[in-house]
Amino acid sequence: MTASGKPSSTGTSPRKLRVVMAQIDFLVGDIPGNTDLVIDATRRAAEEHQADIVVFPELCITGYPPEDLLLRPSLELRVNEALERLQDEELAPAIVVGAPLRSGSLLYNSAVVIDNGTITGRYFKRFPPNYQVFDEKRYFAEGAEVLVMDIRGVPVGITVCEDIWKDGPVEDAAKAGARLILNLNASPFDTDKQARRKALLERKSRENMVSIVYVNLVGGQDELVFDGGSMVFDHSGVLVAEAPQFRDGLFPVDFLCEHHCQPVSQSLPDTPSLEENVYDALVVGVRDYVNKNGFKSVVLGLSGGIDSAVTLAVAVDALGKDRVRAVMMPFRYTSSMSLEDAEAEAVALDVQYDVFSIEPMYDAFMATLAAPFEGTTPDTTEENLQARLRGVLLMSLSNKFGSLVLTTGNKSEMAVGYSTLYGDMAGGFDVLKDVPKTLVFRLAQYRNTLSPVIPERVITRPPSAELAPDQKDEDSLPGYDVLDQILNLYVERDFSADAIVAEGFSRADVDRAVRLVDINEYKRRQAPIGVRISERGFGKDRRYPITNGWKSGK
Fold it and tell me: Is 168 left (phi over 0), alpha (psi -120 to 50) or beta?
């Protein structure tokens, strides 16, 4: 589909164009509600910003990723009804929305241009991604055509997300006369993503001498978090406008279009630290998972350790103190320091706080198990029983009060199986599931710069599950500063054990860590989902068979 716009006549004043980037949080599957959001945002963009064009994220009509909802027989009917509503509204600005469209027997991830109550252009995404968390080729065919069309007297090219990462779509649009590219995105967050986007957009805009408007989705969807960060690069590769990450809103940008479409420069937000970015991602992920799934509140076990302390802070920042309940469940091995610190955290964040000893329940279970356990030596069985009793208490509170249980395991623990099935893994959402232990410490320090809510000794003392006398994590695992580096190489970068050893790590530490990762896949399959903040989390990203004979050495 190619429609060429005519450039402004030489000697005339540059054409002014105001584009509003609609960085909005949509709900997957709620096609009527998402359509309402588009209509409301467009009206506000017209009234508050006098928008000429409003650009929305990829697949905003269905939300992203819609997964197998795309296979539902009524999808086409519902999407068509939404597009008819948008046309019937006769909105003043032109709008560019993302929607799945069928052409013949094939379904396409599409951008739709609606202007003056009419669909004036359709673009089919040319490169549906099929890696990491993306599996678009399960649903979508590949588009083949360029769309460059006249919008308010300016030749505008349309692309969708992955198209900008590949050679072809931007280049073809520029060759077809586009002076402005509108790129619709649903690009999930990871810790280095915004920097990679900027490097790409700088190169693409400069090499093709075309300004690019990059509009990204914001909000949480299951394990994915979309960080927004919508931005504009001019034709020389200069970043001239950037929306804040993790913030819903309408962000206008003015263009003066003559030989080029030159955006008017804006003040740019400060680049957030890694810790700030990750913390914001966790807050958004928890907020949207709880709210979009209709939970009234959350409950979590507060142990006095650093993982539960950070989880509690994230939960309060996401939902407010009145929707968070913390429960300390001490046992004979729980230190007085843990009791004191857990209470201090609950008081600092002003949440409902309960203390329920698991001692009587443990004794009752052990009495029942006395006969079958006779003649055996205490081991991890008794340790796991403590964790499982705590899980039963939290799940009971969840059932009774409609609260979602937040688990507190971090990525390092999930990787090596340092967790108890149906115990500390019992719950609905694991806030720190993709956060390595070393980063958990940094997040605690960052959160305390906002307000002091985590006692310093929680950050500085050696981590312990406190399931046995004088227990420390490092009795069972390499130190986290070493373990996290090994796990990064093995889990996220696919290094073999031999290759990790060649990086300077001890053979004993590497073999131990790699073996633990491999044998605990069955646990991770049964773990709750959690916020993805890395390029490769446990979940959609990493799909290893539980039963396999692969040898991890080479």
Answer: left
Active site residue 292: no
* Angle between helix 306-319 and helix 437-450 axes, rounded to 10 deg: 50
Is 302 annotated as belonging to a binding site?
yes
Domains and CATH numbers, the chain: 15-269 (3.60.110.10), 276-473 (3.40.50.620)
Q: Specify whether 125 is catalytic.
A: yes
Token readout for 544 is 């290893």
**pTM (2 decimals)?**
0.93
307 assigned to a ligand binding site: yes
Check: CB of residue 314 under 8 Å from CB of residue 431.
yes
Task: Give the active site residue among 16, 47, 89, 161.
Answer: 161
Q: List pLDDT tens digits, range 227-264.
A: 999 999 999 999 999 999 999 999 999 999 988 899 99
3-state secondary structure 437-475: HHHHHHHHHHHHHHCCCCCHHHHHCCCCCCCCCCCCHHH
The active-site residue, picked from 60, 125, 242, 540, is: 125
187 belongs to an annotated ligand binding site: yes
Chain segment 438-474, per-residue pLDDT in tens: 999 999 999 999 999 999 999 998 877 666 676 666 7
Residue 237, marked binder? no
Confidence of residue 3 (pLDDT cuts 50, 70, 90): very low
- What is the C-alpha separation between 113 and 214, in angstroms, rounded? 16
DSSP annotation of 322: G
Asked about 58 being catalytic, the answer comes back as: yes
